[in-house]
Write a structure and sequence with these properties.
Elements: H1 12-23, H2 27-46, H3 54-69, H4 75-94, H5 113-123, H6 129-148, H7 159-170, H8 175-194, H9 222-231, H10 237-251, H11 256-261, E1 267-268, E2 273-277, E3 284-288, H12 291-303, H13 327-340, H14 350-362, H15 367-374, H16 384-387, H17 390-394
Length: about 400
C-alpha cells in the first residue's frame, strides 16, 4: 500500500494483512495486529469517515491512555496495544511494516502553539524510552488543564494552580499514577525554570511522598525451579535455547528485556563476564559468567543457534530466524516450561529474578549488595525481597507480653 496524504479506508485492512504475512509474522501475531487495525478502522466508520484520520486515532489512543492511567489496564497490555497502534499508523503513513516512526507517543491533546512548543521541547530531553510516553501524557494533560482555566502560556501560572491540578488528578487516578504525575511535573518545572519560562521550579511543592500500594508476591520455591529446569529437553534446539534463557533468569537474575537484547559481543569468555546496559534503568552492569550459565550458552550457540546475521544471541526457532520479538516472548517460554514441569501456568518470568533476590537476602547478603548485583538505581526496588524473608522478619516481631486484650485478662 503506497503512502498517501489521504489514505482510503476501503481495502486498507486487507493490504495491511497481506503486508504482515509477507514480512514473516506468525499467524498468531498477524491475527492480533489485524484485529487491532480492524478496531481502529471501525472507529473511523462509526464517525462516518472514508479516509484515515489521525485525529480519530488520537481520540482512540486517548481513551486507552485514560484506562491505563486510571489503573483499569495492566501496563504490559497497555504497552502491547500502543505497539499495535504504532505499527498500523506507521504502515498507513509509510506503506512499510518495519518502519515504526509513528508520532504516537503518549496523549496527543490539541494545545495552543506556545504550550505545544514548550511541551515538545521538554519531551525531547534526555529521557529513557520506557518513561517518555508517560512524561508526554503528564505534560499534555497539565497544559490542557491550564488551557481549560484560560491560560495560553505560563504567564500567571503559580503554585495554587499546581496544587489544584494535583488535587483534580487525585480524584481520578490511583496513587501509583499520582506518584508519576508528581515526579514528571517536578521535572517539567525544573525545565521551565532552567529555560526562563517560570521564576520558580517549585521543588519544595513537589517534595511530598505518595504512598503506593505494593504487592508482596509469593516466591517460587527452589524445588519448583529445579523441576522446571530438569523438565527442559536439552537435546533439541528449542530446549538448548530455553534452558539457557531460564538459567540467565535463575542464576543471574536477568530481566526478560535484557535477555532478548543480549548480544554475542556482551559475553567476555576470557574474563568470564557478561557486560550489559540494562534496558529498564540504563545502568551498566557486569555479571559473572558462572560455569553452568556458560555451558548452557555455549551449548546453544555452538550446537543450536541458527546461522544468521543478527547479533542477538537468542533467536526464533522457526524461520525467519530473527531475534526474539519482545520480552513477552520470554514470558511465553517461561509459561511453556511451567506447564511442561506440571507447575501452574505463569507468564511472570520475573519470578526467577525475585526468587534469586529473596534467596540472597535470606542467606544474609545485604540488600545494598543485592541492589548492586541487580543494577537497581533505587534501593526501594530491592526492598520487596525483604518482605519474603520470613525467618529474618520474625526477629523484628514485637512481643505482646504485658499487653492485656480489651475486655479481659491476660491468660
Amino acid at each position: 500500500m503506497p503512502s498517501k496524504e489521504k489514505a482510503p479506508l476501503e481495502g486498507m485492512l486487507e493490504s495491511y494483512e497481506t503486508a504482515l504475512a509477507q514480512t514473516g509474522y506468525s499467524i498468531t501475531t498477524k491475527l492480533l495486529l489485524v484485529r487491532r487495525a480492524e478496531l481502529m478502522i471501525r472507529q473511523h466508520l462509526n464517525a462516518g469517515l472514508e479516509y484515515f484520520d489521525q485525529a480519530t486515532i488520537n481520540r482512540y489512543m486517548g481513551e486507552i491512555d485514560d484506562k491505563y492511567f486510571k489503573g483499569s489496564m495492566q501496563k504490559k497490555y497497555y504497552e502491547r496495544i500502543r505497539r499495535e497502534i504504532d505499527r498500523f499508523v506507521s504502515y498507513v503513513s509509510t506503506g512499510k511494516i518495519d518502519s515504526l516512526s509513528s508520532t504516537l507517543r503518549g496523549a496527543r491533546q490539541k494545545l495552543t502553539p506556545k504550550f505545544e512548543q514548550t511541551a515538545e521541547e521538554f519531551i525531547a530531553g534526555d529521557f529513557h524510552p520506557n518513561t517518555r510516553c508517560d512524561i508526554r501524557w503528564v505534560t499534555y494533560k497539565y497544559f490542557a488543564w491550564l488551557e481549560g482555566k484560560g491560560f495560553t502560556d505560563m504567564d500567571g501560572v503559580g503554585a495554587i494552580h499546581i496544587q489544584k491540578f494535583l488535587l483534580a488528578c487525585s480524584e481520578q487516578y490511583p496513587p501509583s499514577t499520582i506518584h508519576n504525575v508528581r515526579l514528571y511535573l517536578k521535572k517539567l518545572y525544573a525545565f521551565l525554570h532552567a529555560t526562563g519560562r517560570v521564576d520558580d521550579n517549585y521543588s519544595a511543592l513537589f517534595s511530598f511522598a505518595v504512598n503506593r500500594e505494593k504487592k508482596v508476591f509469593p516466591v517460587l520455591p527452589k524445588s519448583d525451579i529445579a523441576k522446571l529446569l530438569d523438565t527442559i529437553n536439552r537435546s533439541t534446539v528449542k530446549g538448548k535455547r530455553d534452558y539457557a534463557i531460564m538459567l540467565l533468569g535463575t542464576v543471574l537474575g536477568l530481566r526478560a528485556c535484557d535477555i532478548v537484547a543480549l548480544k554475542l559481543a556482551d559475553i567476555n569468555w576470557l574474563r568470564g563476564e557478561i557486560r550489559i546496559v540494562q534496558s529498564k534503568t540504563a545502568n551498566p552492569v557486569i555479571l559473572p559468567l558462572t560455569q553452568d550459565v556458560g555451558e548452557a550458552l555455549k551449548d546453544y550457540i555452538l550446537n543450536g543457534r541458527p546461522s544468521t546475521a543478527d547479533k542477538e544471541i537468542f533467536l526464533r526457532i522457526n524461520a525467519p530466524h530473527k531475534r526474539l520479538a519482545a520480552a513477552v516472548t520470554v514470558g511465553e517460554i517461561y509459561r511453556d516450561c511451567c506447564i511442561a514441569a506440571g507447575l501452574p501456568a505463569n507468564k511472570r518470568f520475573h519470578n526467577l529474578r525475585r526468587a534469586l533476590g529473596t534467596s540472597m537476602v535470606t542467606n544474609g547478603i545485604s540488600v545494598y549488595d543485592v541492589a548492586q548485583v541487580f543494577g537497581d538505581k533505587n534501593i526501594n526496588s530491592t526492598k520487596p525481597y525483604l518482605a519474603a524473608d520470613a525467618e529474618h522478619l520474625k526477629m523484628c516481631a514485637l512481643s505482646f507480653a504485658g499487653i492485656a486484650p480489651a475486655g479481659g485478662e491476660v491468660q
